[in-house]
Amino acid sequence: MGKVIALFNQAGGVGKSTLAMNLGYSLAQRKQRVLLVDMDPQSSLTTFMGLEPGTLERTIYNAIVLEEALPIHQKLHGMDLVPAQLKLSDAEQELVTAYMRDIRLKDALEPVREQYDFILIDCPPSLGMLSYISLVATDYLLIPIQTQFKAFQGTDMLLQTLQKVKAKPNRNLKIAGFVPTMYDSRNSHDELTLKAIQEQLAPIGKIFPMIPKSTVFADASMDRTPLAVYSPKHPAKKVLDGIAKEMEKLNDL
C-alpha cells in the first residue's frame, strides 16, 4: 500500500503546492510511483502540472461528491495527477449533509493505493471540510511553514485541528515533519522565526532543512516544470531530494 502524505497548512502562500509538485518529482526521480491529488479549489497544483483547470470535465470533485472513479491524468513529469478546479469550492457545502462524508476521499483513494508508492495530497489553505477529509484520508502530515512570525503563530491552530482528527476519525495519523519555506537569510525576522520553529516544533516532528526564498520557484511554476528541470543546479534541489529520501523512511516512524 502506498504512503499517503497530506501537505497542509491553513495559511495560504506558504509554498504548499510548489512543495507538492517538486517533492513528488524528486520521489519520481528516485523511481517511486507518485500520484498527486489537488484538493485546493484554487487549482495551483493542477496548473503547475500543465493542465488548464477550466477545461477539465472531471476532477477530484467528481470523486468525492459524485462518488465516481478518480480522474487520473498520467505521465505528467513522471507523475500522475488527480486535478482540481474552482467548482471544488462547492464541495465544502455539499459535503456537509453527504452520507459518510468523513471518508469520501479515503474511499476514493483506496482502489488505487496499491498502484502507487506515494500519494501526495495538496490540501487547501483552510480548516474547512476539504482539509478535514484530506486529514482523515492521510497517513502522514507534512507541514510547510513560511519563516514569518505570523505564519509560525498559526501553527497552534493547525496542531489543535490535528489533535481533533487523531482523537477519533484518524487515530493513526502521524506528523512526517515541518518544512520551513521562503527563508530569506538577509531578513533578521526570518532568522528568528526559523530558530523558533527549530526549537519549539522539534519535539513534535522532524524539522527539515529550510527552503530558500527564490524567484526561480515562481519562474519554474510559470513554465509548468519542476524546479529540478527548470534549474537543475539550484541549491533547493538538494534540499528537496533530501526530504524525498526521508519520506521513503516513513514506515520506520
Automatic annotation (TrEMBL):
Coiled-coil segments: none
Protein origin, superkingdom: Bacteria
InterPro entries according to UniProt: AAA_dom, DNA_Partitioning_ATPase, P-loop_NTPase
Domain AAA: start-end pairs: 3-175
CDD domains the record matches: ParAB_family
Designated name of the protein: ParA family protein
Top-level taxonomy: Bacteria, Bacillati, Cyanobacteriota, Cyanophyceae, Leptolyngbyales
